[in-house]
Amino acid sequence: MHTSSLRQTPMMFLLWLRSYRRSPLRLVLVMISICASALTFVTGMNLSEALDRAKPAAAADAYLMLAAGAGTEMRSFIPLSAYEQLRTGFSASPALRSEPLHAALVLPADIVLGELDEDRVPALMRGLPADDNGGLAGLTLIEGRLPLPGRRELLLSPALNAWVAERKAGPVLKLGHVEWRVVGVAQRAGVSREVEMYSTLPALEQHFEVSDMVSSVSMTLDPVQLAEVRRLSEQVQGSRFELLQLNDYGGRFVAHLQSQLNTFWIAFLVLTVTCTGFGIHTIALALEIERDRVRQIVLQLGFLPLAVRLGEIAEGCAIGIVAAGLAVLLYALFCHNLQLQSLLPSGAISIGLPASPSGVVLTLVMGAAVGACTFAWLPAQRAFQDRQR
Questions:
Q1: In sequence order, what are the residues at sequence separation of 6 or more whose Cβ sits closer than 8 angstroms to the Cβ of residue 326?
Q2: H-helix or E-strand spanning residue 210
Q3: What is the per-residue DSSP string for 109-157?
Q4: How confident is the model at residue 156 (pLDDT cuts 50, 70, 90)?
Q5: What band does 334 get if pLDDT is binned at 50, 70 and 90?
Q6: Any bridge partners for residue 123, and if so which?
Q7: What are phi and psi of 100, to 5 degrees?
Q8: pLDDT at residue 388 above 50?
Q9: Taxonomically, which superkingdom (predicted)?
Q10: Distance CA 307, CA 11 (A)
Q11: 362 and 45 Cβ atoms separated by less than 8 Å
Q12: Bridge partners for 242 per DSSP
């Protein structure tokens, strides 16, 4: 047979694929191995993208005042006496006199529907003071009415309201075995996709018996006011303060979480790809005698050694693409639009895992690369062993 390697390669590719008719289980095992690597790849990549989207999008001049050294917002309690000193300083300062100082009591709270805890969502509950217009500071009312001071009444964020509405939970939620009535939906400024509840500060202080501290103080400041706040903070006795931008505060937490997940994802991906390679190698060794007989026959028929090898690489590439496609389908079936609730320092948010076209393409390329490299390595190893003999 006198022809080029490129013309012989498609024939060898079809010949290798036809060889699986005798051993379909081998083909299934190879595809499952590559599919596991591809599924790890697409899940980790999309989770990292979802965390990127979860970073807070607060205004550039929005700051959060925390007790120095606080790790998370749930631990960033400011003594009420220190807060009162700050508020007095704000009133006495010409630069800050017109700047409202809003405190918020922020508590973690799980909403559980059903008796077996089978439907649970972690959320943050914010007790907010009333502003000059009688509304809750930093909130925009979307529907319903505002909670009455001191009553167990709640506003829900849009994301949390949708979660509750899907489950037809009704207007009453149980928090700590105490019923709270939902009276409306509100959006908090500076965050998106939050999973939160809002009530009046007196209600949280009364029903949770927290009266000697506030959790955090959010404000919007220009450079002159920012310097004045730092000066006042240094004068407060018994407490140290730091001012952090809301974007930086929440972004640090997400970036740290993202770094940890990426490290785990890459390590696990390397492990699965390595296991895939050795698994396919073990499966191939089981039928090596038959494959070697086919190889000898086609070489006697005039097929070039390069065409035989390219046919095996094309075989691995095709199997890898099909296996990666199966991984994408499994991801779309189990993970696409899956909402992960997470407590972040800047607010509890709902993370949705995306399924982008670029991710699908990259996963198919990854599957093809794993298959091609594995099937290219097998002939090279066989040739090395033949030379050793």
A1: 31, 35, 38
A2: none
A3: EEEEESTTS-EEEEEEEEEE-B-TTSSBTTEEEEEE-PPPTTSSEEEE-
A4: very high
A5: confident
A6: 109
A7: -70, 140
A8: no
A9: Bacteria
A10: 9
A11: yes
A12: 66
- pLDDT tens for each residue of 91-111: 999 989 888 787 888 887 778
Residue 126, both tokens: 């914010």
DSSP output for 329-366: HHHHHHTTT-EEEEEETTEEEEEEPP--HHHHHHHHHH
Q: Which of 287, 310, 316 is nearest to 31 (CA)?
A: 316
Q: How far apart are CA 325 and CA 328, in angstroms?
A: 5
> Cβ contacts of residue 108 below 8 Å, gap of 6+?
74, 122, 123, 124, 125, 343
Backbone phi and psi for residue 325, each to the nearest 5 degrees, phi listed first? -60, -40
Report the distance separating Cα 49 and Cα 144, nearest Å.
35
- The gap from C-alpha 220 to its chain's centroid, in whole angstroms, comes to 28
As separate numbers, helices (DSSP H) first and strands (DSSP E) second, the chain gives: 10, 14
Contacts of 243 (CB under 8 A, 6+ apart): 63, 64, 65, 221, 226, 229, 230, 233
Sign of CA pseudo-dihedral 104, 179, 163, 145: negative
Surface-to-core class of residue 68, CB atoms within 10 Å of its CB (0-12 exposed, 13-18 middle, 19+ buried): exposed
Which residues, in sequence order, are CB contacts of 281 under 8 Å at separation 6+? 374, 377, 378, 381
**pLDDT classification of 202: cutoffs 50, 70, 90:** confident
Q: What are the C-alpha distances in Å from 180 to residues 87, 156, 184, 207, 249?
A: 31, 11, 12, 11, 31
